[in-house]
């Protein structure tokens, strides 16, 4: 079975621009979460969706938004990019609530 | 503020030895505990899940959970150079289903 997929792999943007990151969960997985990881730190929680409803939001500004589609795929949008948004953005899926989450390869975002 | 603490290392062990990685967490309501392995430049890979007190073994890996002490550990037996990576401890965030991660412990296995 295919794992979690994310696109694009790498992205370079300039300050003030907007970006959309995409994620497809493992087939049958209903929960999708987004995390931001900067060098030397563990992933930080951004959003979680379960059955297409937002179930949790981390301590990130309103410039960050997300949604989950009927096929359980998900998008993360970041507006008005700042230099500090440069990071690895990870999508993870799980079969059910509270179970182990499986990560995709991530999208490396660089903001210049 | 729910926190997960890990020794950042690096932890260096010789090939064939037992590597012991430790993690403490602050939220007594946490129910699910996970260990992830992350190679440099790659995404985290789930290697162990543990939900109840005691030990859980999977191949060369053993996860140990002590909820009273709010302590989780990972033992890697017969360590191999390919085990060299950063190991992330993660705890389920309670009412939200998100994971709270430690900063990770960097393990180096010397041939």
Task: Please tell me about this protein's structure.
The complex is a heterodimer of chains A (112) and B (111). With 112 residues, chain A is mainly β. Chain A has no helices and eleven strands. Chain A has strands spanning 5-7, 10-13, 19-24, 31-37, 44-50, 53-57, 64-68, 74-78, 87-94, 102-103, 107-111. In chain A, strands 2, 4, 5, 6, 9, 10 and 11 form a seven-stranded mixed sheet that branches. In chain A, β5 (44-50) and β6 (53-57) form a beta hairpin. Chain A is globular and about 35 Å long. In chain A, 38% of the residues are buried. With 111 residues, chain B is mostly beta strands. Chain B has no helices and eleven strands. Chain B has strands at residues 4-6, 11-14, 19-25, 33-38, 45-50, 54-58, 61-66, 71-76, 85-92, 99-101, 105-110. In chain B, the strands form two sheets. In chain B, strands 2, 4, 5, 9, 10 and 11 form a six-stranded mixed sheet that branches. Chain B is globular and about 45 Å long. The termini of chain B are far apart. Chain A binds chain B through residues 31, 33, 35, 40-45, 48, 50, 55-56, 58, 88, 90, 92, 94, 97-106, and chain B through 4, 31-32, 34, 36, 42-46, 49, 88, 90, 92-93, 96-104.
What percent of the residues of chain A sit in helical stretches (DSSP H or I)?
under 10%
Mean pLDDT of chain B: 94
- The mean pLDDT of chain A is 95
Give the oligomeric state of the chains in this entry, treating copies of one chain as homo and distinct chains as hetero.
Answer: heterodimer
Task: List the chains of the largest interface with their residue counts.
Answer: A-B, 28 and 24 residues
């Amino acid at each position: 079975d295919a794992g979690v997929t994310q696109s694009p792999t790498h992205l370079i943007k300039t300050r003030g621009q907007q970006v959309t990151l995409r994620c497809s969960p493992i087939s049958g997985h209903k929960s999708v979460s987004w995390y931001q990881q900067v060098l030397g730190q563990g992933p930080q929680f951004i959003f979680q969706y379960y059955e297409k409803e937002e179930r949790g939001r981390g301590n990130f500004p309103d410039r960050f938004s997300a949604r989950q589609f009927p096929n359980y795929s998900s998008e993360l949008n970041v507006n008005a990019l700042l230099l500090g948004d440069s990071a690895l953005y990870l999508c993870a899926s799980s079969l059910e609530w509270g179970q182990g989450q499986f990560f995709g390869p991530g999208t490396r975002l660089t903001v210049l | 503020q729910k926190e997960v603490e890990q020794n950042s290392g690096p932890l260096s062990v010789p090939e064939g030895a037992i590597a012991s990685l430790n993690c403490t967490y602050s939220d007594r309501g946490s129910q699910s505990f996970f260990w992830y392995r992350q190679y440099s430049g790659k995404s985290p890979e789930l290697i162990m899940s543990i939900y109840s007190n005691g030990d859980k073994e999977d191949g060369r890996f053993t996860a140990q959970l002590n909820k009273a002490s709010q302590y989780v550990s990972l033992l890697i037996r017969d360590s191999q150079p390919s085990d060299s990576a950063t190991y992330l401890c993660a705890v389920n965030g309670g009412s939200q289903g998100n994971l709270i991660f430690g900063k990770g412990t960097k393990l180096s296995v010397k041939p």
